[in-house]
Amino acid sequence: MAKNRTSVFSWVWLLIGILYLGLPLLSTLGYSLSPEVRAGNPISFSAYFDVLSDPKFSANLWFSIGAGLLTTVISTMLLVPTTYWVQLRMPYLRSTLELMTLLPIVVPVIVQVFGLLALYRSTFLVNGSGGLYILMIGAYIIWAFPYTYRPISAAFQAINVKVLTEAAQSLGASWITILLRVILPNVWGGVLNSAFITFALALGEFTISSLLAQQTFSMYQFGVKDDIYKPIAFTVISFALTWFFIAVLQQVTKHPSQRNAARTTR
Amino acid sequence: MAFLDITDLRKQFGATYAVDTFNLSVQQGEFVSFLGPSGCGKTTTLRMIAGFESPTSGEIMLAGEDVTRIPTNRRQIGMVFQSYALFPNMTVADNIRFGLRVGGQSAQVMKERTAEMLELIHLPEVANRYPHQLSGGQQQRVALARALAIRPRLLLLDEPLSALDAKIRLSLRQEIRAIQRKLGISAIYVTHDQEEALSISDRVVVMNKGRVEQVGTPTEIYNTPQTQFVASFVGTLNLLEGRTVNRADNMISIDGQQLCVERIEPTGDVLSVALRPEAITLHREADDIDALPHNNTLRGTVEDVYFLGSVVRIRTRLRDQFVNADTFNNPHANLPTPGEPVLLNFPLEACRVLV
């Protein structure tokens, strides 16, 4: 009897949570489908068609995808070897790195951007869109650093880096082989986790791109002021993209044996 | 020239010598164990041989080649770790193949050698499993196969059985020894378990506080310990305080009772005397001393009797000191009871005066 009461209690809280999070989303979705409700058409995808067929939408989306990919690749290539080396040879630096991850959170983004503009004012980085694009990528990398570093760090701490490295060395492996064939596959989940988070952050980022006058995905909604439904449809599309990335992340970060087990039991 | 020659090896951490003046020669095909308590330097020495630690000074020669400063991945050694160190992202077969792939072996060679190794460790059926799907004992056997697959010049094992339960340890250590003998490969085995070291080694190096206490065969280490540390660390020894009675006649006394020993070291009147429990036979006080088989006898009172399985340990009080005597468990034997006076009889050679 006590067990049944506990189960019901859990279900009640789950329902409250779903309603709390789901109702605003459903309302947004419902509103985005109602541009023709006065014309007697309760459900209409016209706002979505307008957004998706707008050349500016695809241009801004691809621009952000490119920036997101660049940010992700550079961040990952910087942090994976660094985290590996700190874990292996300089564990005393781990606390310093942890402290550094607080800085982008503590310092407001607007301050970071104006700081960068002031620092590089005499260089090509603040002259022309090419330089500002590079500055934007750099700002993204710094801003996303706490979110990029933590999944990678957690993944490294979950394995015995030292012993795996020594085992590989005893079998004749070079440093590159060790990193690519032994270490990276075992922290791949964390690296992918970090990559998707970084990508999603870069995709949805607004402050840096608006201050540096870059036409990113999040800036699109400010170009469609003439229609109330299009920004709402854009919001739903953004959510859908985020959930898509999370689903892909969950699938690709499964351990190979779990994927094999899933395949054989199907 | 020996297959492995270690000369004056030292490793210093700050002001402390983790390994101090280590010298050893290992012959081809020999199985040598490093035995000692935690922190004695045995693993540090092994890691220097492997190349994971750089010596502060000294030299390591392997098959005539000075490998002291050569990186690990070029020493052609195989290593088995306490924590198995199997690569979690690879199957058993891929783990075994790893060293062969790195060495640029052909697919055919890799396939044949992997099958050969799996047969050697009697686990052909687990080739496609991942490490997390194996038991501890299976993982360690795979780790051994992986180390041997590359045909190393020297096999290093760092407490490979410490993480396993007692029964598996027993069978696996015999298996390791059998494989090592079959392949004729030189091996260095680090352990803190004296039974392990004594049962499978050709020679044992007993270490303490970074230094070598004694090197010898298991029989030599156990029966003729050279120092107090070796005598107390290896086996369950009685360490008693004695006094010189007559140096010329090799007569000593323990708690007022006189004994004859083989030799008294010229170190003063107060002596440290080692007496093995299994060398002592227990007799009732009423028995005729002159009829007892050995020439040394101590009188005492039984303090307690401990049942240890195949062995029964009888703790006897002399005057101020205690002596343990071990006897095989015999269900029909009439064991003495606490408080009963007894005679402890043992031969001359069972009693050693230590340095």
Structural key phrases:
heterodimer, A: 266 residues, mainly alpha, MetI-like fold, 13 helices, 77% helix, 0% strand, disordered C terminus, B: 355 residues, alpha+beta, six-stranded mixed β-sheet, five-stranded antiparallel β-sheet, elongated
H/E series of chain A, N to C? HHHHHHHHHHHHH
Mean pLDDT of chain B: 91
**Major β-sheet annotation of chain B:** 6 strands, mixed
What is the H-and-E element order of chain B?
EEEHEEEHHHEHEHEEHHEEEEEEEEEE
What structural class should be given to the helix and strand makeup of chain A?
Answer: mainly alpha
How would the global form of chain A be characterised? globular
User: According to CATH, what is the topology of chain A?
Assistant: MetI-like fold
How much of the sequence of chain B is in beta strands? 25-35%
- Bin the helical content of chain B: 10-25%
Let me know the number of strands of chain B. 20
Number of helices of chain A: 13
Q: What's the alpha carbon Rg of chain A, rounded to whole Å? A: 23 Å
Per CATH, the architecture of chain A is Orthogonal Bundle
Describe the structure.
The complex is a heterodimer of chains A (266) and B (355). Chain A has 13 helices and no strands. Chain A is mainly alpha-helical and 266 residues long. In chain A, helix 3 runs antiparallel to helix 10. Chain A starts with a helix and ends with a helix. The C terminus of chain A is likely disordered. Chain B has 355 residues and is an alpha+beta fold. Chain B is 24% helix and 35% strand. Chain B has a 6-stranded mixed beta sheet, sandwiched between helices. In chain B, helix 2 packs across helix 3 and helix 3 crosses helix 4. Chain B is elongated, with a radius of gyration of 25 Å. The two termini of chain B are 32 Å apart. At the A-B interface, helix 8 and helix 9 of A face strand 6 and helix 2 of B.
